[in-house]
Amino acid sequence: MFIDSVEECCGISILNQVGYARAKPEVENMLLRMSVCLEDVTLGMLVTMTLTDSQLRPSAMKKYFLPAIFDMGWTLVTRFRNPNSGNTVNVFHLVTKDSALRKGRLHRKYPPSNQGKQEVVKR
To answer: Quick check: pTM over 0.85?
Structure first.
């Protein structure tokens, strides 16, 4: 149920099976697994992660996970309703510029400094 792997294709990496957490220790584990998965991503690649509103609903995800990923440099780029499931899907992007990715230090930027204040990029 937690972050499983990263697949790369055409300059884009997809973070798989992100899951969700209900408590701060689970969020910290997710962030650690994310940093481990991203260590092997080629610098300069775009990484994408999708989470449904249901995955983001637990308070630990809102309070700890979202602010932490925004602090890491992730951006919420769009939201859409999946016509197959009816779920609202949130698409996040990260461009791997930071050398911290190579040293597995992403999770050390936790707790975040911006408290999750991130705007959706409108097209």
So the answer is: no
